[in-house]
C-alpha cells in the first residue's frame, strides 16, 4: 500500500473501515473511485453526507427514515394494530421485500447479548412496552432472528408482555425450502419438528 500516494492510502484506510471491506477490496474501490469522473465522485460524496444529515430514526417504529413518522407508520392502509418486532432496519426491509406483512414495525436495534454487554436498556424495549400500553396494538409478532440472541430476546419480550392485553406470536422457523435435512443443524431440525403443522 505504501506505493500509492498519501491521498489514495487515506481513502483505502477509510474504505477498509466499512464492514466486510478488507484492504484488497478497499484498494479496488479506491482505484475505481479514482477512475470515475469528478461528477460521479462528487455525487458519491454528497450522497454519503446526505445520508448522515437527513436519515434519522422514526419516532414510532425506530426504522430508518428521512421523515418523521416514516412512510410506513403514516400509511393509513397499513394495519396499525399488528406490530412486527425485528432486530434491525435491514430485517424490516427483508420483510417488506417479501410483501407478506401489511402491519407496522418496531425495530429493537439489536438483540439481547449479555456476553457483548447488550442488555434490555440498550434496545428499544421500553419504547415497545410504551407502544403496547397505549392500547392500540392487538398482536405483536416477534420476528427476531432464530439464533441464541434472537431466541433469548423473543422469550424475554414474551415474558415481559404477559401482563398486557396483547396477542404475542413468534414467526415460524424450521427447514428452509430447497434444503436437505442432512445439511441442517440440530436446532433447526428440532424446531421444525416442534412447529410442524397439518398438511
Describe this structure in words.
By secondary structure, this protein is α/β, with parallel strands linked by helices. It folds into two domains: 6-54, Helicase, Ruva Protein, domain 3; 77-170, Dna Topoisomerase Vi A Subunit, Chain: A, domain 2, CATH 3.40.1360. Helices cover 41% and strands 13% of the residues. The chain contains seven helices and six strands; from the N terminus they run αααβββαβαβαβα. It has a four-stranded parallel beta sheet with strand order 4-3-5-6. A hairpin with a 6-residue loop joins strand 1 and strand 2. Helix 1 (6-15) crosses helix 2. The radius of gyration is 21 Å and the shape is globular. The termini are far apart.
Q: Would you kindly provide a brief summary of this structure?
A:
With 199 residues, the protein is an alpha/beta fold. It is built from seven helices and six strands. Helix 1 crosses helix 2.
CATH topology descriptor of the largest domain = Dna Topoisomerase Vi A Subunit, Chain: A, domain 2
Output the number of helix runs.
7
Low-confidence stretches: none
Q: Strand order of the main beta sheet, please? A: 4-3-5-6
Quaternary organisation of the protein chains: single chain
Mean pLDDT: 92
- Please count the beta strands (DSSP E, at least 2 residues each): 6
CATH class of the largest domain: Alpha Beta
Query: Largest beta sheet, briefly?
Result: 4 strands, parallel
Element-by-element helix/strand order: HHHEEEHEHEHEH
Q: N- to C-terminal separation?
A: 60 Å
What's the CATH architecture of the largest domain? 3-Layer(aba) Sandwich
Give the CA-based shape.
Answer: globular
Q: How much is the radius of gyration in Å?
A: 21 Å
